[in-house]
Amino acid sequence: MTNKIVQKHPDLGTREFELVDDAIEYRISSQFGDEELSVVLSVLAPKPVVDGSMMYFISEVNREALIKMFIDLPDAETFAKFVNTVQQRIREESFGTLAADNRKSEITQEQVNTTINMLKTNLDPANIEDMLAALHRLAEAPDNREYLGNVVEAFNELGVQQGPVLAYAPFFNTLVSSTDLDDLD
What we know:
By secondary structure, this protein is an alpha+beta fold. The protein has helices spanning 76-93, 109-122, 129-140, 145-156, 162-168, and strands spanning 4-9, 13-20, 23-30, 33-40, 49-51, 54-58, 65-70.
């Protein structure tokens, strides 16, 4: 497990990333000055975005790039190990995301059909096509955990549409992990 990397770019300076507790500390030194910040892992999407020679970890809250890294620096193997560690830690800290295993009660076809109808009535179906397709499959076999997992995956990929889906379809609240207030101390 790689918890720290230092990236030295010939033109853009040095970037240092370190996993500390539930955050990633990020230090930049360049010709334009020094910057230091800390980002809580639970706000990051675990799947980074690649753009040319850069990789970004995006905020789940506002879709802004919060962690900006040079790909394959200091070397490809160290970089890959660090990115894998970051992704694993984000998943561990992400207590508010949906997961099929969080649903303990039985799912009925009626519940799924009601959810589909609520979403189609209140949202533009074109914006949630993959979600609706996954829900239709689940409606055909409500006890199929793989299909429920597909619904969760489609939801987690919705981005800004997650809020409206949660607002109009209470079914999804049963897929959020339960966190006791005592756990947050």
